Amino acid sequence: MKLAIIEGDETHAELIRRYIRAWGKDRDIPLAIISFPGTENYIAMREEHRGIAVLFSDVRMDAEDRKETARRIRAYHSKMPIIYTADIAEEETDGALHPSGPGDREKLFRCIDKALDKNDEKKFLTVEVKGSILEVAADKIMFVEARSHGCVIEFCPQRGRTFQLESAESISVLEERLDKSDFIRCHRSYIVRVDKIRRVGRDCIELRNGSRIAVSRKLYGELKQMAAQRANKAGEKNGQ
């Protein structure tokens, strides 16, 4: 999971990084933490650092500056949670960092959990389409297909309506951004969302919108089992 920090005070930024690493260790989640000294640096580097799950931003600014900063960030990542941090560290004479209150680390843990829970209600895939950055609801994606100059993403925002987007990014890049619990690389040229599968055949996968895509022979058994497990869970949920 990739997290980012906007913080001009390196002392404060290091404490936030330490807390975040502790959160990841506590929940057994591998983390990549990227730090930026200011909002301008973050915006300038946004292309190189897409796929960020949560952004931490210094709140030590007046209300108008904070509102403008949030507006600029959300112009590129409209659904990304932002956690504002400030004054959670104080430096004592020995140079050691200490939380200003005994519950600050736990408070930050709860903020991250809440932000991710809220974000997980509707996960998004960030893609580049014709020079623009778009966010596609991951739960609407049917499959991703590799093409010679990028990928085609087929999604179904409404029942009976299917659309395709062409992205210049490779299938391997998009695979890294998709949740491994929801998507699987079923073929060297395809990634499929498991809960969109209607039937798994030895030669192809039939999706709920009627599309058919190729399946690797090596993954036939695994995919069939995954699709059956998803169907059973859905049945149990509907029966409750």
How does this structure look, described?
This protein has 240 residues and is α+β, with helices and mostly antiparallel strands. It has two domains: 2-120, Response regulator (Rossmann fold, 3-Layer(aba) Sandwich), CATH 3.40.50.2300; 124-239, LytTr DNA-binding domain (OB fold (Dihydrolipoamide Acetyltransferase, E2P), Beta Barrel). It is built from six helices and 16 strands. A five-stranded antiparallel beta sheet has the order 11-10-9-13-12, with helices on one face. Strands 2-1-3-4 form a four-stranded parallel beta sheet. Strand 3, helix 3 and strand 4 (82-85) form a beta-alpha-beta unit. It is elongated, with a radius of gyration of 21 Å. It starts with a strand and ends with a helix. The model is unreliable at 89-102 (pLDDT under 50).
Task: Identify the overall geometry.
Answer: elongated
**SS-based class:** alpha+beta
Measured distance between first and last alpha carbons? 33 Å
Query: Superfamily at the CATH H level of the largest domain?
Result: Response regulator
